[in-house]
Amino acid sequence: xxxxxxxxxxxxxxxxxxxxxxxxxxxxxxxxxxxxxxxxxxxxxxxxxxxxxxxxxxxxxxxxxxxxxxxxxxxxxxxxxxxxxxxxxxxxxxxxxxxxxxxxxxxxxxxxxxxxxxxxxxxxxxxxxxxxxxxxxxxxxxxxxxxxxxxxxxxxxxxxxxxxxxxxxxxxxxxxxxxxxxxxxxxxxxxxxxxxxxxxxxxxxxxxxxxxxxxxxxxxxxxxxxxxxxxxxxxxxxxxxxxxxxxxxxxxxxxxxxxxxxxxxxx
Length: 267
Prior knowledge:
This protein is an all-alpha fold. The chain contains 13 helices and 2 strands. It has a domain at 37-195. It has helices at 2-22, 53-60, 68-74, 83-95, 99-113, 116-131, 137-157, 162-174, 179-192, 197-209, 213-226, 231-244, 247-265, and strands at 27-28, 31-32. Helix 7 (137-157) runs antiparallel to helix 8, helix 8 runs antiparallel to helix 9 (179-192) and helix 10 (197-209) runs antiparallel to helix 11 (213-226). The radius of gyration is 19 Å and the shape is elongated.
């Protein structure tokens, strides 16, 4: 089961990596497409009780030991810190490749700046950052919990916030492990905007995980119709047809993927 989960995440990560590499300029109805590296995959056993910021930071600093100035700063209330101090901390987290700390500080900066867009960014940084750190239960649980607090505020004010709803889908799947909940949220979100690429990609991952290959192939067709110049969806379709045992379509879509990819390189 663990091996299958790792394979699933690897496939999802590669697909999203291709999206980011080839199509940063592509737009959805809500702006520039910036999909997460998260995928729906079912939760591991994460702490359900509240995790403190101190517990989170202690767990984070097992990855890379912080300089004294940074440790003192981050253990203070973040609302008391100026933005330039947080920017300095963010730079250190980036340079040391401490991804959970980087996501945490990014969200703190966005919260300080305020506004619907910044708060949405803060929540997504936490939720998607948590989903990428499932191997560290304390870190993942804290980020999920803090992200959900912001999501609740956002969705109370604007239930139609699609990027926030997408983060909620990941939270309900990865942290709560509540299939009926995240399936309901997914359906509602698609009903609000059936052309949101990130939402459709979350659905595709769900269909792949549950081996619903015919529906997954149909979802690929939808994604291809939304982004016909994106080779990711053709590669995904080829892969899915392969799982279905349809070698003809698997080859057709593989050739299309390579053709589209090469065409993009010449532009």
